Amino acid sequence: MSKSIIVAEQSEIIRKGLVYLVEALGLFRTIREVACASALDENIERFQPDVLILNPSMVSGNTLEVLKEKQNGEIKIAAIVYALFDDELMGLFDDVIMVSDTRQKIQKKINALLDKTPAKKNQKPEETLSVRELDVLKLLVKGMSNKEISDKLFISIHTVISHRKNITQKLNIKSVAGLTVYAILNEIISMDEVQ
Amino acid sequence: MKDIIISGRMKMADIISHDKRALVLLPRFGIEMGVGDKSVKDICNQKEIDTDFFLLMVNVFLNANYFPDRKLKSVDVDMLLLYLENSHKYYLEEKIPYLESLIEEFKKTVDHPATEQLDKFFKQYIIEVKDHLAYEDHTAFPYVAALSEQIKKNNPDISAVDYHIGVFEERHDNIEEKLSDLKSLLIKYFPPSNDRYIRIRILNELMDFEEDLINHARIEDKVLIPIVEHLEQKVN
Known about the structure:
Chain A is of the alpha/beta class.
């Protein structure tokens, strides 16, 4: 039990809550609280923590890059999140703790940070359609049924449905009528091809 | 004001100015603006609206997590139906014509072959919404009214009403779903054009209508359906 951790979070309720969960883990000898961004650097310098749980809103400029470089990647940093932050900033963290996470989930994440291989981060979902999905979309907006599409493309109905699901998820458009507008906008089909 | 439970002692004006969603509720109860400093209770008494019923509806409408179970039994079915019909009137007489005029303007402003398809999509959608509302107004609600009428009698005759609220539940599809498609198309996929403010106006209106429909559906699911199921149990 020689590890140390800093919990940097402005909200007292959330900070104390995290500290409580961290204490219960029994993994850390030193648990340090930081409530304002200005005290962050000094505390990291002094306590050389193994883990830092940090609210991304306390990050200014390239603090995080500098910190990682200085510590040679020795320090694992998790974000505590209850607001929207940009992807670039979030990419600098080793993991993300959501305020809505369960106790088990939070403790598992902190645990994983101490291992060499931190918990895998969520991959950003693909947004562009694959060639096959484009094929399905084309036939779909021409008014074909799942069965007709499956016959035409020599794939099972199940595969057609799965393509349709992916198309809807990627584009955030559910109805065929909406997909038709999308297809025309992106010149996937022309107006005359639409029924 | 979000996630606060509204009580009868609060000022009507405060409720509206803190949560604009409450704005559309007033005409559904026949309450006009110009409420002065009167409390919710004062206004309800003056308009002969049951305060508990008003509070129940406002809280279900404004708060997705509000469960009204305890208070459902005392709801006056005729008042509830009047409220629902007034909501439909607002959609048919105000929301839909306004959206139609906005889309018409968008079509004139934006020169792109896809606007024609968007217009077709929207017109089809309007037909679906009108069908949905007409079914409730002409089939589901008259059934509920007839059922509640029978129950007030000494010997309720259920054969007079050949319907079941389960049918309503099954048919109760999400009419707000396609609004979300329209939203995606306008936010993400229509290329930038000389449409500046009209697109903002449409999106504002789409989001407003979408939220209203979702809240409205919650009233039907959490208030209307449980009440009617309770009535049905009484006669069976």
